Fold this sequence. Notes:
The protein is α/β, with parallel strands linked by helices. It has helices spanning 11-22, 24-31, 53-57, 75-84, 94-110, 127-134, 149-159, 164-173, 182-185, 188-202, 221-229, 289-305; strands spanning 2-7, 35-41, 62-67, 88-91, 115-116, 140-146, 204-205, 212-213, 232-241, 246-255, 267-274, 278-285, 319-320, 336-337.
Amino acid sequence: MINIAILGFGNIGSGVAEVIGENQSEIQKVLGDSVHVKYILDIRDIPGVVNDINMIVNDPDVKVICETMGGKEPAYTYTHQALEHGISVCTSNKELVDAYGVELSAIAREHNCSYLFEASVGGGIPLLRTIREAFGHERVSRIAGILNGTCNYILTNMKAGKDFSDALREAQEKGFAERNPAADVEGHDTARKIAILASLVSGKKFSYEQVSCEGITGVTQQDIADAEARGMSIKLLGVYESEGSSIVVAPYLVPSSSPLYGVNDVFNGIMITGNMVDNVMLYGRGAGKRPTASAVVSDVIECLKNQGSNVHTGFADLEPVMSASAPSKPEGSKFRVLGA
Ligand SMILES: NC(=O)c1ccc[n+]([C@@H]2O[C@H](COP(=O)([O-])OP(=O)(O)OC[C@H]3O[C@@H](n4cnc5c(N)ncnc54)[C@H](OP(=O)(O)O)[C@@H]3O)[C@@H](O)[C@H]2O)c1
C-alpha cells in the first residue's frame, strides 16, 4: 500500500479521493500496488482532516502529495517543502505552475522526485502528457485551443439566441462559472493555460503577463450572427505560434472546416500542429470535479511508477522568453480568423 496526501479538500481534492476510492482496482492493476489517502489537509475544520503541513512532509510514508488548494500561497510554500523532502507533487493549480513551475520543477529534479501538472491545463484531457511523450521529437508550429469551458458555454448559448448576461447567469447557476467570473470571461484563465502549453513546446518560459489577452465581454449577438452568416463560429482561443513567438488570447472567427468549430458547450478542444504529424486534435472535459481529479490521479500514478527519480517535463530548464508578439487583427475587422 502506497500512501499519499491531498492538500485542499474542495472540488478537485475531494474528486481525487473519489477517483482513488472508486477506481482502486484499476489503479492496483496499473501500479501493482494500492494507493491510500493517508492525510487530507484543509483550512476548514472537517473531521479526519489535518491543518499542519509538517505532519505530512515529515511522514516518510507519504510518497506523493496532490496540491489542489489553488492560489499562490500557501500552495507554493507547501509544495516547496514537500519537494525538498523528496515527496513528489501533482497539482491542478495553473496559477502556481505559471508563476513558479520552473523553480519547483528544478527543486523536484534536485531531490529526485517530480512536479507534475497535467490537471492544470485542459482538465481531464491528457494534454500535457501527450505533448511531452508524443510531440517531444516534433517541431510544434502552432497550438490553438478552446481552453475555458465557461466561455465556450456562454458563446455556444449566445449562438442559440441568449444574450451574454443570461448565458453567464446560466453558467453560474449550473456551477460552471465562478461567482466572480472575471478570470474566465476576460481571458486570464485561458492566458495562463496557453502560456503553460507554449512553454512546454517552445523550450522557453512564457508567462501569463506576456500574453496579449482579450476576453469575450465585447462579443455581441450581432457579431455571432455575422460570423454565422459567413459559415463561422466565434470561439475564445488561446493561440501560440512558434514563428515570432506569438501568443494571444482572443475571440476568433473559426471556419466550419476547422475541427474546433464543432467544440461546443463546456467542452475544450486543442489543436496541436507538428511539422511531421500535422494537426492533432484533443477533445474532452476541460474542467469539473471528476475529469480534473482523474488527471491529477494519472500524475500520481506516473510519480509512483518513477519513485526515486525525476519525471522530466522540460520545465526545470526553461529560460524566460525575452519578447512575445501578438498577431495583428485584419484591417477593419473586430476579430482574427483562425487559419488552416
Ligand atoms: N474546479 C475545476 O473544474 C478546476 C479545473 C482545473 C483546475 N482547477 C484548479 O484546481 C485548484 C482547486 O480548484 P477547486 O475548484 O477544487 O477549488 P476549491 O473547491 O475552492 O478547493 C480548494 C480547497 O482548498 C482549501 N484551501 C484554501 N486555502 C487553504 C489553505 N491555506 N490551507 C488549506 N486548505 C486551503 C479550500 O478551503 P476553503 O473553501 O475554506 O477556502 C478548499 O477546500 C485551483 O487551482 C483551480 O484553478 C480547478
